[in-house]
Request: fold
Amino acid sequence: MTFEQGSDWLANFIEFPQPKIGGGWPVIGYWAENTLNLDGPRLWQKLLHEHACKSCAWGTKGFTNELGQPLQRCMKGLEAEKGDIQAGIAADFFARYSIDQLQELDSYQAERLGRLSYPVILRPGSHYYEPIGWEEIYHIAHQAFQRPPERLASYSSGRSSNEAAFTLQLMMRALGSENLADCSDLCHVPSTRALGKMFGTGTSVVELKDLHKADCFVLIGSNAPANAPRLMNELKDLRARGGKILIINPVVEVGLVKFASPAELNSLVFGSDISSLYLQPHPGSDAALFLGIQKWLVEENRVDYNYLRNHTTDWEAVVEQVKSLDWEDIVTVCGISVAEIAAAAQMIADAERTIFAWAMGITQQANGVSNVMAVANTALMTGNVGKEGTGCMPVRGHSNVQGFGSMGVTAELKETIRQALEKLLGRSLSRVPGYNTRKLIRACEAGQVSSLLCLGGNLYAANPDREQARRALANVETIIYLSTKPNIGHFHGLAAQQTIIIPVLARDEQTYITTVESGNNFVRHNQPGDTHLDRRHVIAEIQFFTHLAGLLLGKDPIDWQRMRDPEYIRQLIATVIPGYAQIADIGRTLKDFTIEGRILHDSTFPTPTGKAKMFVTPLPVLTMPAPQSLGAEANEKAKAFILITVRSYSQHNTVVYKPGDYYRAMPHRNCLLMNPKDALEAGLSEHALVVVQGAVGKLSHVEVIFGKIKSGSILMFYPETNAIIHPEEDPQSDIPAFKRNPVLVYAETEAMAGAFKPGLQSQK
Ligand SMILES: Nc1nc2c(c(=O)[nH]1)N[C@H]1C(S)=C(S)[C@@H](COP(=O)(O)OP(=O)(O)OC[C@H]3O[C@@H](n4cnc5c(=O)[nH]c(N)nc54)[C@H](O)[C@@H]3O)O[C@H]1N2
Ligand SMILES: Nc1nc2c(c(=O)[nH]1)N[C@H]1C(S)=C(S)[C@@H](COP(=O)(O)OP(=O)(O)OC[C@H]3O[C@@H](n4cnc5c(=O)[nH]c(N)nc54)[C@H](O)[C@@H]3O)O[C@H]1N2
Ligand code: SF4
Ligand SMILES: [Mo]
Reply:
C-alpha cells in the first residue's frame, strides 16, 4: 500500500541548519500555508467557532485567553483543527485493506487516512475491519460489560469533555469497577500526587494573572515553545518588564533562549530574550539540583524561616537533610557546578515573586513524585506559595486532561468525591484499588481484564514496550475504541475476540454545549456546531455511555436516559465535584469560570492543618548500566547513553503531523540528537547512521544530529522509541521514566560511522 507523504517530503532532503530563534516566521508561514488554500475558509470557520482549543491545556478559546487578551492562538490549535476537518474515511476502505496492511502504516500515515466516519468491528479470526450497526454494537458492549466488575476497565485521554468524563467514571463506578486508567498516569500524575500531599490540592495554584505579577519564573523540563506556545508570550513579557527566567533542561531548546512571538511585530522581527540563566542537568537529576539550590539558601541564610514556621509543617527535617548533604555529591549527580547552582538560587532569593513551572522532564522520572516535591519545597522555603504572583504550576498536557482528573477519572479517587458519588448512587463504592495505566497493561497481560473501553487516546503507542502492550491488549476479550481519528493503536492494539472502533464527534461538532478545564483551572464552554460527517454513523461520547449504562444499569438510582442531556450531567457535576458549583449554570449564563479553591492567594492551605506539609526528597542515585548488560558484546564499540524521549515540534503525542523538527534541526523522525563531544569520543561524525539498542529492542538507520544536549544523553522522538524502551517506574506513582532510558549506540557498520547519504533513510 502506498501513501503520499504530503509536501513535507521535500524538507527531508534539505539540510536543516538549526535556527537561532524559536517561534517566528516559520509559524506565520505555517498559518499562511494552511489557511490560504482551498481548505482555508473551513479552517477559519473552525478557528472562529467558539470552543476551547483542542491542542494543549494552556487553554485558549477563539483568539483570546481567559483575561480577554487578543491574539492568543498558536498554530498548534490550527494543527489539531486541520486533522478534524479531514474527509471521512471511504466506505470501502476497510474492505480494501487487511489488518496486516494497516499495520504497516506509521503514525503519520494513520492520521492522514481521514476522520473515522462509521463504526467498524474486527471479528474473531477475521483479517478485515468491517462496518457494524449500532444495535449490534450495543448488544456486544452490553454483554462485554456484564462481566465481573474487576474484569472491566477503561482508559481515557484528556481530549473529550468534562461531561463525557463524568459520565464514563459514573458508569464504571456504578458497575463496580475502579479501573479508570487515564493518560495522566503517563504524564502529570506525580504532580497531582506530590502537590496533593503537600498543598492539599493537586493542580496549579497559579492563575494567569499571577504570571503578570511575577518577577521571576523557573521553567523545568518543559519544551513550552512547542507544547504550550502561548506560555511563551507570558515569559517574553516577564523578561521585558525586567523579570528573570531560569530554565532547567538537559537540552538547549532554542525557543527557551530566544523566542519570536508572532503576536508582536517587534518580537517577531528581532526575537525576545527568554532565559536569563539556562542550566543543563543530567536527565533525572533535577531533585539534586533543587537540593543544591536549597543548600545555598540555607548556607546563605536566605530561607524564609518565618514563612516555614507559620505556614508549613515538617520543614525542619528538610532543612536538616539539606545541611547534611555534600556539595560534591550534589554536583556529581546533577552535573551543574556550585557557582551555577548558587547563581540560580540567588536569582530566586533576590526576586519578590517567583513562579515554579514544570512539565515532563520532571514528572516522567523514576523519582517523579520526589522531583515535584523538591521543586515545591524550594518554593515554600522562599515563601513563594500563597501570594499573588507566586506559586507552583504544572504545565499540563492534553486540552482537558485536568478536567478528566477533576471529574474523577482516576484510579485514585479523592475521598470527598467518593463520598459524594456514594450519596448519589445510594451505596458504597468498591474499595478494590483500580488499575492505573501501567497496572492496566500488566493486568491485561496477566489475563485479568475481559472488557476494555478506550475513550480517545492511543493506549498501545503511548505505553513503553510496544510488544508488551500488544501482548497485553491481545489478552482482552473485547476492546471498544471511541475515537475521532484512526491511529496505530487501532491497528495493533487488538483484542482476543473483537475490537470495535466507534467514531465520535469532536467538541465543536456536538449538538449541545460541553465544557473543558484548562491547566490554569479555568472552565470554558464549547458551543454546539456542525459536522461534515454523517451524524447517523458518528456519535457523541455522552450518548454512547448513557445508552450503554441504561442497558446495563436500568434507571435506578441514576436516570441514564435523563443524562443524555448534558445540562443534567452538569447539575450532577456541580453537586459532586468540589469547586465546580458554577458549572450548573454555564449552559444558560455562558460564563466561563475559575474553579473555586484551587488558586492560593493566601497561605492557608486546604490541608487538615491549614499548612503545607514538606517532605524530605532523597538525592537521586543515577547509574549508567554496564554496556554488556544491554548486549554490548554484539558490538564492542557500542557506547551507553541516556535516551530522552520527547515530542517533535510537529506532533501531538502519538499523532505525527510532519516528519521533521525544524527547531532542533532534526530533518526526519529517525534521528537522534547527540552532543558533538560524545560523538567524537564514539567515533561518529554528524549524519552517521547508528543502531540504538534499548531494553526491549533496537532501531536501525538512525541518523546522528549534533545538538546542544548534555553530554552522556541523546534525544529521540516518541512514539517510535516506545518499541525499544522499558523504563523504570516511579514507585510512588508508577509513571515510566520516559526521560531516562539506558540505551546503547553504535555505528551500523564501520563505514557508517562517517558516511551518510542525504535523504535515503529519511524516506523510511
Ligand atoms: N504541540 C503539542 N503540544 C502538546 C503536546 C504535543 O504532543 N504537541 N502534548 C501535550 C501533552 S499530553 C503534554 S504532557 C505536554 C508535554 O510537554 P513537554 O513536557 O514540554 O513535552 P516533552 O516533549 O516531553 O518535553 C519535555 C522537555 O523536558 C526536557 N527534559 C528531559 N529530561 C529532563 C530532565 O531530566 N530534567 C529536566 N529539567 N528536563 C528534562 C526535554 O529536553 C524537553 O525539553 O505537552 C502538551 N502539548
Ligand atoms: N516515550 C514516551 N512515551 C510517552 C510520552 C513521552 O514523553 N515519551 N508521553 C506520555 C504522555 S505525557 C501522554 S499524555 C501519553 C499520550 O497518550 P494518549 O492520550 O493515549 O494519546 P494521543 O496520541 O494523545 O491520542 C490521540 C488520539 O486521540 C483521539 N482523539 C482526539 N480527539 C478526540 C476526541 O475529542 N474524542 C475522542 N474520543 N478521541 C479523540 C484520536 O483518535 C487520536 O488518534 O503518551 C505518553 N507516552
Ligand atoms: S497555547 Fe495551547 S491552548 Fe493556546 S492556542 Fe496554543 S495549543 Fe491551543
Ligand atoms: Mo501528557
